[in-house]
Amino acid sequence: xxxxxxxxxxxxxxxxxxxxxxxxxxxxxxxxxxxxxxxxxxxxxxxxxxxxxxxxxxxxxxxxxxxxxxxxxxxxxxxxxxxxxxxxxxxxxxxxxxxxxxxxxxxxxxxxxxxxxxxxxxxxxxxxxxxxxxxxxxxxxxxxxxxxxxxxxxxxxxxxxxxxxxxxxxxxxxxxxxxxxxxxxxxxxxxxxxxxxxxxxxxxxxxxxxxxxxxxxxxxxxxxxxxxxxxxxxxxxxxxxxxxxxxxxxxxxxxxxxxxxxxxxxxxxxxxxxxxxxxxxxxxxxxxxxxxxxxxxxxxxxxxxxxxxxxxxxxxxxxxxxxxxxxxxxxxxxxxxxxxxxxxxxxxxxxxxxxxxxxxxxxxxxxxxxxxxxxxxxxxxxxxxxxxxxxxxxxxxxxxxxxxxxxxxxxxxxxxxxxxxxxxxxxxxxxxxxxxxxxxxxxxxxxxxxxxxxxxxxxxxxxxxxxxxxxxxxxxxxxxxxxxxxxxxxxxxxxxxxxxxxxxxxxxxxxxxxxxxxxxxxxxxxxxxxxxxxxxxxxxxxxxxxxxxxxxxxxxxxxxxxxxxxxxxxxxxxxxxxxxxxxxxxxxxxxxxx
Length: 594
Description:
Number of helices: 19
Largest sheet: 8 strands, mixed
């Protein structure tokens, strides 16, 4: 129905007759001459209709924004002074000769030509309209280019694209599973995969050697800007590799991707041990563009009378840390109160601070409600450790180590953005040497990544599991985890030690992972891999504020689809076929009786 896409016409087409199809992006009537901006997925073309063609001029006079039309006309250069350097087609226009209205359109729920502050709920409810906006269409097109590029790279490196099942069985991987009831096996359930983890390991046992998949994954977890109940992973696994080899290949892939698609040459990817990342930045995905760091001051406050500090300092699981903010003394009391409320989200009970007005004046030059409780010796020692100077402000966190890490780590990022401290455009790194396990308040161990991660030392795993390090690695960019992976356990004995450390007995292990344990007995090769979050990667590369802006049909933050009204109820017949009976609440019974 068309000879060209709207965004494709240029000076090389001058004097050619073209046929274009699309939506009316904008209509303007300039003294008897009608201008239509016609839009398709490739861009916008300006079409001009004048009274010399009465029939098409009358049609152009009828059309409104978002009408679907077909036009035929001659390409010509725009008159001097009317060029639009902001449009790819801004040097030319089409003199319309024929116009057919293919479909009329109701007034859209929000303007597409001058997109304003429209609530996300309105955009998601009418997502098919939202996706017409040029910036949304460009993001989806860019996402397509990213997936195509990654496929081509992995194909060229000898990786094989293999699909794995979507209906599988529930396995513990850190989040709740989405369950699917079985009609043919009453009382039994499939689970949607949180990742293809076990299957890709089985593919290595199968001799596939190098596997990849752009896979749908599902996790029933609390949502935020970079999480969705269903998301897409670029899943990679290889046999007979070390962590340096798989990390090197993946780093080269990401470097090439940014270079070829964005023209960006990423800087070096430094290796940052997990313990150092937590100590310096309070996070295992640090944003290295922000030049703020945490400093431990536990040893300086252990003996002070201020129990808010000395208590956590003496607790083996506690931490007292300081965060120096250059120029932060200009923060108002209201701003400090806002930051105190912010860290409360992460469990912090407060946010102590010291303003440095005159460093040379000693303790008299410091302004803070806590100085009199800390005492002069400890206070000045802290100022020396953080290298405070006039005009600085020092924030403190004192609590369980995990609370301090999360609260000050998040505050560091917030301050960096609020105070304009972000330096540079792109700062990647690898975070390595993760612990095998994390310990809860009851002393029980949980896998930090997943229970199939290989240890650095089998001896350490056996003798001191709580202190064992894993052969895991995460790729981080600008404070966002792009992907994570590890070298896997490839022998049954080591896998059983891990299960024992996690309190998974032999019977439970056989029930949940028997097929994997059996496979490990039949000659599993050393193997490892990595999974990238495709949505997060595209979000960063396009500058979108949320992964919802790079997913065609995302869910809201409470895991619903406003467009289709999912999840929804099903009728009793379907429930009976699935052997399910819903338990009615007392409130619903009362509503029925009314």
